[in-house]
Structure prediction request, 172 residues.
Amino acid sequence: MAEANWYVAHTYSGYEKKVQDSLLKTVANRHLEEQILEVRVPLTEVVEIKDGVRKTSQKKLFPGYVLVNMVMNDDTWYVVRNTRGVTGFVGPGSKPVPLTEQEMKSLGIRTENVTADFAEGDTVKVIAGVWKDTVATVTHMDYSKQTATINVEMFGRGTPVELSFNEVQALR
Prediction:
């Protein structure tokens, strides 16, 4: 199987989230999870101070663009290119050009694979972040995003929390 790369799809401005949602829905409907691995709208956190009130919000890093991690072939090209709101890929003519390692690092996309010494159903301890020292059970592993979803006990019931593999350690 060919290697997956990150490509940039150009969209109508303001349609980035709609494109992401409809592309993910199409991937699920056509069972292309093995070929289109991830769709991202790059966001950055912005702090605004208005009338003395500090407010943080998410702002699009590149308005009009969506990042797609996929194996490029005729099927995947067709699916992305014909998604409502997509005007094309970034690249000369109709030939998409994948992002380089350096471009991906500057966007904060990890390319190295972190291996996890735990699996779904294992009990783990959170070693960093807000949930540090919390012991919980892994309910889902996402290897493409390198995250684990754990159930944290909050308000008397389990609440799913998604954490990076680096923030979780297996209990032995």
The two ends are 36 Å apart (CA to CA). The CA atoms of residues 39 and 68 lie 5 Å apart. The chain has three helices and eleven strands.
